[in-house]
Amino acid sequence: MNSDAPEAAMDRRSFLRTSAVFSAGVAAIAAGLAPLRQLGKFTSVDEFVQKYYKELTPEEMKAVLARIEDEVQRQYGIRPHVRDYKPMNGVEYVYALNLTRCVGCRKCVHACVAENNQSRSPEIQYIRVLKMPNDGTFDMDKGDHNYAPKSVPEPGFFYMPVQCHQCKNPPCVKVCPVKATWQEPDGITVIDYNWCIGCRYCEAACPYFARRFNFAEPSIPKEQLNLNMSYLGNRPRHKGVMEKCHFCTQRTRVGRYPACVEVCPTGSRKFGNILDPDSEVSYILRNKRVLVLKAELGTLPRFFYYFDV
Amino acid sequence: MALDLPAQAMAPNRKSSVVLASLTVAFAALAYSFYEVPARPGRIDRPPLIKPDALAAVPGTIRISAGQLIRSGGDVSGMDCYACHHKESPPEIKVDAVGNIILPKEHSDLIISMRNCAECHPPNDPVKLEYDDSGNVIVPAAHKGLLSMAHGRSLRNNNCYNCHDRDQLDRLHTPEGASLKFEQATLLCASCHGTTFRDWNAGAHGRTGGYWDRHQGPMKREECTSCHDPHAPAFTGLIPMPGPHPLHPLPPRPETPGNDTHEL
Fold first, then answer.
1. Which chain A residues have a beta carbon less than 8 Å from that of B110?
2. pLDDT classification of B99: cutoffs 50, 70, 90
3. Interchain contact, B28 vs A147, CB within 8 Å
4. How far apart are CA A270 and CA A98, in angstroms?
């Protein structure tokens, strides 16, 4: 109210004007940054300073696994078993799929979703089953993965499930700018979900359409969560990271078959150690007619299609 | 406002006012752009997801022989039914007065094989077969629903005594004359399907489970009759489980290969 100070640098009018402009500016900044409040949880400090997977000491790994168990417990209310399963010595996994027997029932797709804690909404599936016309052309362009007849198999078609081929020369690993995906000694190409930056280069590089991106925060019903989790495998993912088939590391690295093998009602899916001459995959590669998908690309898949008869 | 004031009074503060005003406009525009995006209607328009009930209604994945089911004593938790059933609460098996398993509606495509003839027929009293004009066995009315004679695609293997022993109905016999128990049916199948038996022995035919690493645990195998009905061994159709859930309704698929192949 003091208006009798004409010599002051700021009169009432300019004070009001400046303060009005200033407060409007502050309000605009606050409004502009308001969406940050909706970011929700921030990355914890421990997660932010976590070291690269291959540089973690066993003690540090233990702390990381405990932290992930805490995170899952906070989110789902159940405490899982998260373990870091290491590859076995003298083991290289190979997958064989019998195109003569596969009937396209998609049991494998859903067994995989249940085993590996994929997001139910939005839906993520590692396996795509292609319905292909049995006209001798083997033209991938004619494949249809949205078939929904009353009963399968339909006459005149064969069915070709496609999933990660665990290539020996994997293009997805080459393009990763942060080395968040790599090939393990047992042949499984894995992803560190804490290291992935979500650039999706690997998705573009994969010729088998095997990699999936979490466009939204994954959601899994609490009672459907598989509590047997592995760090490089089926622990819950976050929004913005890649994921893909990892041959069920939480099962195969303790000697069990992957979920898709166990569930297949026709026995089309075969899995085993190619370095063991007595394994069924060794028998198949020795005795059956085998097909490698897109062999001309030189990716050297560890996933083989074969035929009976 | 500021622009209406005389030029002399404004001179020292004009520059900063303009800067502040333009910043205000910039931030207001930023705020507007943030708030506009989620407000746009129909931006995320997903069709509803398939209900879990729909998945649970899909019929059984495997065929279980009656013997296996009865021996399980109601605990079929080791039989890989988890796609629908929960491990902690295995389904209760209901049996009718005669001892046959009553199949629930959702398992109507489950085939119970390995019926024991001797339940009704005295083992040492051979059943006389009757043939129609084209040489096929006439299946008696009492066996309707139990048997469908469809073994072999062209030359139907339709003579009961090709496999069953005429004089001992609780036993089987191979064409070479070896007498086998019902539990040894796999060897009987092998007497004709040698190549398949070879594959099965190597683990390359048939359903497997358990452990690939024999040092860690056993590999779970199925006998021929666990999956195949010996009287009609060819697989009947299965109901496919739901496919990938499209973000947008699918366009009708063209008859000729179209251009929508970018996904694979």
1. none
2. low
3. no
4. 8
pLDDT in tens, B157-185: 777 788 888 777 778 888 888 898 888 88
From A62-76, A102-116, A155-169, B62-76, the region with the lowest mean pLDDT: B62-76
A38 touches chain B (CB under 8 A): no
Task: Look up residue A226 and give its two tokens.
Answer: 């598989």
A36–chain B nearest CA distance, Å: 10
> What is the predicted pLDDT for the residue at B90?
66
Portion 62-121 of A in contact with B at CB < 8 A: 88, 96, 103-107, 109-111, 114, 120-121
Beta bridge partners, B204, equal none
Residue B161: both structure tokens together: 């005594």
pTM of the complete model beyond 0.80: no
Three-state helix/strand/coil letters over B167-211 = CCCCEEECCCCCEEEHHHHHHHHHCCCHHHHHHHHCCCCCCEEEE
The Cα A188–Cα A246 span in angstroms is 6
Q: Which residues of B are less than 8 Å from A88 in CB distance?
A: 213
3-state secondary structure of A4: coil
Q: Which residues contact A87 (CB under 8 A, 6 or more apart)?
A: A184, A185, A186, A188, A253
Are B20 and A25 in contact (CB < 8 Å)? yes
Distances in Å between the alpha carbon of A300 and those of A169, A277, A291, A294, B261?
A: 6, 20, 12, 9, 24
Scanning chain A, the segments in alpha helix (DSSP H) are 12-33, 45-48, 58-76, 107-115, 171-175, 201-205, 249-252, 259-263, 280-287
Do strands A93-98 and A303-307 pair parallel, antiparallel, or not at all (unpaired)? parallel
A82-132 pLDDT per residue, tens: 999 999 999 999 999 999 999 999 989 999 999 999 998 888 999 999 999
Q: Does A153 contact chain B (CB < 8 Å)?
A: yes
> What element of type H or E holds B67?
helix B66-72
Contacts 24+ apart (CB under 8 A), A45-49: A47/A194
Alpha-carbon distance of A144 to B165, in angstroms, equals 48
Tell me the pLDDT tens digit for each residue of A3-32. 555 555 678 888 898 899 999 999 999 888
Structural domains of chain A ordered from first start = 106-247 (3.30.70.20)
- Name the range with the highest mean pLDDT among A19-28, B130-139, B143-152: A19-28
Amino acid at residue number A110: H
Distances (CA, A) of B252 to A105, A179, B247, B248, B255: 22, 41, 15, 12, 9
Residues within 8 A of B (CB atoms), A 216-245 only: 221
Average pLDDT value over all residues in chain B: 70
B interface mutation test: which of A159, A211, A266 has the most B CBs within 10 A?
A266
Confidence (pLDDT) at A205: 96
Residue B109 has what pLDDT? 52
Whole-angstrom distance, CA of residue B164 vs CA of residue A81: 52
